[in-house]
Amino acid sequence: MSLSMRLAGLALRAAPRAFRTPEVVRRTAARRRRPSVPLTLRRLCRVREEVVAGFPVMTLTPRKPSGRELIYLHGGAYVFPLREAHWWIITALIRRTGATVTVPLYGLAPWHSVAEALPFVEAVHQAVARRAAGARVFLAGDSAGGGLALAHVIDRRNRSESQPQAVFLFAPWVDCTMSNPGIPVLERRDPMLDIPGLVYCAQLWARGLPLDSWQVSPINDTLAGLAPVYLFQGGRDLLLPDAERFAVKAAAASSPVELQVAPDGFHVYVAATFTPEARAALDGVARVVNGVE
Predict the structure, then answer these.
(1) Rounded distance, CA 162 to CA 152, Å?
(2) Which of helix, strand or coil describes residue 86?
(3) Cross-strand pairs, 267
(4) Which of 21-30's residues contact partners 24+ apart within 8 Å by CB, and which partners?
């Protein structure tokens, strides 16, 4: 483990835990607001905000675009808005690929649910595909956004729509039931996540759908016929056991899948873009997007 990763993990462990209980989740959600696009990113890109299917969408086009397109779905357990750390990931991806990044700001629970999010993300995908006019379209997401990204590609497969070129998932939440027996074991090592708050968020997001439905827990799909999926997971992230299970199941279904684990990485460690572990993961994404791999 690098020194910078170790220090980042210690800082996270000292910070307030947002998922300790449902009440803590509610209090934290009430305080959080979406941060504005950082000045460094505005200097790097032209920023456009529009409304698609009733929800805001941000498009960041580099001053020197490569012609590639990437849709990024942010995490936050489906209840928290996009945070500054998400801008760090997006900035790093743009600098490495020159891709135009589209960020759909899907409605959050408890006011919205997955039943609204899936058609919204599909509308955004269609708009990006029209704009791309044959260019390569990629999909990425972290944590809850990774779960939504998987549900989206499953939804497209079910409707015989084309798949993205590849899907990049940073610590995806693939099973909202939180029933994997390996999760409580890792919970003690995880500096960020707690089971009670996550289960509460999942119930809000499902809003009537079973927690084990593919829309909420995409690992319960067959996982056949999906685009190549690249997972980047931390070894101290309690979502690791389900990421491992997803990779095994997708491979058994003949869907291309690759899982990379940073042994001492925390949840969505790629947001710590100053660490060697995060840089290696982001460089790996760039090699795929840029057509090197």
Answers:
(1) 11
(2) helix
(3) none
(4) 21/194, 21/196, 21/197, 21/200, 22/196, 22/197, 22/200, 24/197, 25/77, 25/79, 25/197, 25/200, 25/201, 28/80, 29/79, 29/80, 29/108
The SS3 of residue 222 is coil
> Residue 208 is encoded by which pair of tokens?
């009537």
The 10s digit of each residue's pLDDT in 53-107 is 999 999 999 999 999 999 999 999 999 999 999 999 999 999 999 999 999 999 9
Q: Looking at the DSSP assignment, which residues form a beta bridge with residue 103?
A: 58
Degrees (nearest 5) of the Cα angle 65, 66, 70? 90
User: Is-above-0.85 flag for pTM?
Assistant: yes
Helices 195-206 & 22-31 angle (0-180, nearest 10) = 70
User: Residues 6 or more apart from 134 whose CB is under 8 A from it?
Assistant: none
Instruction: Give me the helices (H) in 78-211, please.
Output: 84-97, 114-132, 144-158, 182-187, 195-206
Helix 84-97 with 276-289: angle, nearest 10 deg: 50
Instruction: Single out the residue of 132, 102, 100, 133 nearest to residue 120, CA to CA.
Output: 102
The 3-state DSSP composition of the chain as helix, strand, coil percent (nearest 5) reads 45, 15, 40
Residue 186: its pLDDT value, please?
96
Which of 2, 36, 113, 143 is catalytic? The answer is 143
Query: Is 143 considered catalytic here?
Result: yes
Q: pLDDT confidence of 113, banded at 50, 70, 90?
A: very high
CA 266/CA 270 separation, integer angstroms: 9
Instruction: With CA atoms as reference, report the closest residue to 116 among 55, 30, 201, 162.
Output: 55
Per the listing, tokens 């919204």 go with: 120
